[in-house]
TrEMBL record:
The keyword Magnesium applies. The keyword DNA repair does not apply. Its cofactor is Mg(2+). It comes from Streptomyces spongiicola. This is Phosphomannomutase/phosphoglucomutase. Coiled coil: none annotated. Residues 379-452 form the Alpha-D-phosphohexomutase C-terminal domain. Belongs to the phosphohexose mutase family. Keywords: Isomerase, Magnesium, Metal-binding, Phosphoprotein. Residues 11-137, 160-260, 270-374 form the Alpha-D-phosphohexomutase alpha/beta/alpha domain. InterPro entries: A-D-PHexomutase_a/b/a-I, A-D-PHexomutase_a/b/a-I/II/III, A-D-PHexomutase_a/b/a-II, A-D-PHexomutase_a/b/a-III, A-D-PHexomutase_C, A-D-PHexomutase_C_sf, Alpha-D-phosphohexomutase_SF. It holds the Pfam family PGM_PMM_IV.
Amino acid sequence: MAASSAADLSQIVKAYDVRGVVPDQWGESLAELFGSAFVQVTGADAIVVGHDMRPSSPGLSGAFARGAAARGADVTMIGLCSTDQLYSASGRLDLPGAMFTASHNPARYNGIKLCRAGATPVGQDTGLTEIRELVESWIASGGPAPVAAPGAVTERETLDDYASHLLSLVDLAAIRPLKVVVDAGNGMGGHTVPKVFAALPVELVPMYFELDGTFPNHEANPLDPKNLVDLQKRVREEGADIGLAFDGDADRCFVVDERGEGVSPSAVTALVAARELARNGGGVVIHNLITSWSVPEVVREHGGTPVRTRVGHSFIKEEMARSGAIFGGEHSAHYYFRDFWNADTGMLAALHVLAALGTHEGPLSDLVERYDRYAASGEINSTVEDQAGRMAAVREAFAARDGVTFDTLDGLTVSTADWWFNLRPSNTESLLRLNVEARDETTMSALRDEVLGLVRNG
């Protein structure tokens, strides 16, 4: 058995996946139990399993497959893939899926992202808690009893189908030639980008496409600005039209304009929303509560209905399914599409940006200006032990001001006609996360500094 036990499984089972240090927190024997439990809880008679390029991923995914087969399920192994490629396989094959990745986390981590057939998410309230409890019971009892008829494990290639489906959803036939720099961060973008981009009229400048789960160049986490520096420099050196950066499992994509300046994920959300609304003749668009005011404004301007949700993968997907939304976007550069089984795919969002830029006469910075209307702080983390106490102090500080409204959908959102901020606790760390937006940079900066002072100096 790996180092994990029934007592500490809760530390690696989070909101919608399993993630921890290998082998200190978990390893192949535990992965095998998770495979068995996944099959038993979902009742699946067949599943699909993929993995990223981390050194521990092939062993963990193989162990999971053995556990699943031992409970009677047939297992289709698709090998190296991005997370959205696994979702595509789950959707096309109509099978529950397991993706072995720790996304943007450092090399010593690994994990599993789980979904039911059709890429429907598995979260704490939709099976993950039952899976954890079943694994805990098996650890205590010595393991599950064998079944009479184990399943078979076979292999299947799915990259071609994944690329074909994405390219069927965006019209790129008439775009002008573009020079595109892509930083794969030694992650799975190095696997998917060459296949998807092969048919496009673009000059591709690849960076760090070698699959290497030790991340020798920089962490595959483009949400951290320091990991975009190489891409920004290369875009300027090459005189490129656009830069794209993918995270480790390539389900998120960040965009850099021709000047090497980052494009806000909110602006990308608004741009893609406008295109999807035009393609579908209207519809519902989901956005979380810390995306820019620009997003619901653009959605309404293009005949759509914006719906605001809490921050997080599981909340977005749940609302996508409930409302029949055509698209959803988050500040973290997760983009969800109805025509991609309500799952998130940074690659499809990137194709939409390329399509928009390729039919626009000016540069990307000019194109996104119409979607990036306000001054924003980005997410700022503060280490705080008494999270509830600090949030109460912030609320008290703003309570007596005219025109202020409060919202507790997710943490604390404080708004006026000219600005808003959201302060919410991390689910896994002693952090408060702050996002601020205002109509001008001076107001935003002053508000940001005031709230940080209350949070950090209380």
